[in-house]
Amino acid sequence: MDNSGQSKTDRQVKRDQAFLPQPANGICGRLGDKWTVQVIWRLSLAEDRKLRFSHLKRDIEGITQRMLTLTLRGLERDGFVRRHYFPEVPPRVEYELTELGAGILVSLQGLNFWIRDNFSRIEENRRIYDEAGE
Amino acid sequence: MDNSGQSKTDRQVKRDQAFLPQPANGICGRLGDKWTVQVIWRLSLAEDRKLRFSHLKRDIEGITQRMLTLTLRGLERDGFVRRHYFPEVPPRVEYELTELGAGILVSLQGLNFWIRDNFSRIEENRRIYDEAGE
DNA sequence: CAGAATCCGTGATGATACTG
DNA sequence: CAGTATCATCACGGATTCTG
Q1: How far is the CA of A101 from the C1' of C19 (A)?
Q2: B82 by DSSP, 3-state: which?
Q3: Which of B42, B89, B38 is closest to B67 using CA atoms?
Q4: Is B79 on the interface with A (CB under 8 A)?
Q5: pTM of the entire predicted model
Q6: Where along chain A do its domains lie?
Q7: For this UniProt entry, which residues form the secretion signal (chains A, B) (predicted)?
Q8: Distances in Å between the alpha carbon of A6 and those of A3, B44, B59, B96?
Q9: In degrees rounded to 5, what are phi and psi of residue B110?
Q10: How would residue B40 be classed by pLDDT, with cut points 50, 70 and 90?
Q11: Is B93 on the interface with A (CB under 8 A)?
Q12: Which of A79, A92, B24, B133 could form a disulfide with A86 if both were Cys (CB 3.0 to 4.6 A apart)?
């Protein structure tokens, strides 16, 4: 990058703008878990950003009923999704991505693109590293 | 897969650009842990992007020797940092952030800003949710 | 100084069974 | 269908000790 001849002022700006020590601890806590991003992502793909519980369950490969429930509860608590309960028989529950929840996906675009563009190199690095160790 | 009814073009574009199903699992795996981002961040702030082991240890509050070692090993394996060993007495080891490692910080800027701007609202949501539950 | 090795508690996750 | 309730597991991280 352009860090040649970096001044203290730049450094200070960098410190203030770049990374907040505490908040981004493990990337905001919840985002680091196994399913949250997947759930948000799936909801964002749905038209009107709503999906039923069972739909999510089917879409997200490998997730258990329990973990989907827990993940959705966490997202609801943070205000990332809204829960719509329809007291029918059988019951129907829809989860809707809020503006807040949609916003975080946008903020993740940069990281997502970066991963897409660099993941193969990372895998290559790992291969080399592991090979050298044996 | 059933795509019946939906605009496949939109959906397809969205799928390709938005989120890669697997790779971003819990955000690229390693990034979700407790210390990795902190370590990268600290290194990025250092001039010439190098710091000694002990320096990192002092800067990152709460990290143990063990976790710093493990985190650095992981980063080295991925090619995010380079390890420079100086066989002196006492030994000195410096860790240098690579271009790859620096790049991921940039890609995290968006998320970082978003968290900074929205974390208070999230906390408020949690407060409300928890209160309603009691 | 920069680690390696070991033990251990805890939280996150998984598997299974039951229910309104 | 959309959960809840239990139990089992397992990786992550912390604390401690030892060493070249």
Answers
A1: 31
A2: strand
A3: B38
A4: yes
A5: 0.83
A6: 24-133
A7: none
A8: 5, 12, 21, 17
A9: -55, -50
A10: very high
A11: no
A12: A92
